[in-house]
Amino acid sequence: MGIITILNKSSEPKYRQIIASIEDAIASGKLKKGDKLPSLNSIKNQYSLSRDTALFAFKNLKIRGLVYSIAGKGYYVKTEVVAVYKKIFLLFDEFNSFKEDLYNSFLTGMGDKVQIDIFFHHFNYNVFSKLINDNAGDYSYYVIMPSNLLQTNQVIKNLPKDRVFILDQMQEELKAYSGIYQNFEKDIFNNLTEALPLIKNYEKLILLFSKNQPQAMFRGFYLFCKVNAIESHIIESLENRIPKKGEIYIIPDDKNLLRIIKKIKKEKLNLKSDIGIISYNDSLLKEILEGGITTISTNFNEMGKRLAQMILCDEQVQVENQNRLIIRQSL
Hints:
Number of helices: 12
Number of domains: 3
Structural class: alpha/beta
Order of helices and strands: HHHEEEHEHEHEEHHEHEEHEHEHEE
CATH superfamily of the largest domain: Response regulator
CATH class of the largest domain: Alpha Beta
Shape: elongated
CATH topology of the largest domain: Rossmann fold
Largest sheet: 6 strands, parallel
């Protein structure tokens, strides 16, 4: 008895019958990992189908991760686990506690019948390009965090547009894609405006800004300082910086947050009364460190949850993730 069963009188499309036949063969043990599937031409000839019908079924199985292909040889069984019905390519810039919250929330929201493979480009365009090109055509959906890399639209243009979701930073060239993002320019401007009465107790506002930070954050900071006539300074590193009384530091990452606190202690300055700190992305550490660090923070758990909903409901939309100011003892 063959692997494929096609019933001409069935209301189910022929490609779905091919898929179901192969799923049943794997589940029953007729097909094992590494076994070769019937060729497209043999299915076409035996059941009087178009070759495209068989190819569509095999591509569906490949996207789900059940089979793989070898050029010139055919299709083979990749796994004996048939329960997975969505296979997702998830590309982060880097992994930290905030991305872990996002990932766990997304994983929970997607449910059990899903395989999520996570990759990291570490702000390297070549790595970004290679990971996407090497995995094109192998996944049901592509969730991509481009960070501040430019011209990423040229890399992802060959992916199915309705299967791509952009995370965190929505560059201008990616506006045609669905996704969930932070509005960094608006968020820093609005949150600093909310904190303005406290900021006015100091003399200078300093933004620590590295090349990996969103450019929109820089624009929002510049606009806020210009509108409110705030003396400001932008620095790339704390390495040679000696903190002085009357300064406020905006620190986007945890390592530099600890570095500036260490420097403040060395200079025998008092946090809040002498010098202020505003950090990015709230965490338990910032809630308790030095009595509490003021933060500008998005909700990464909500971002992951909303992303899962968009994929499960096939929503082709752009969603702005909300951001808020949490004032604590560092300001």
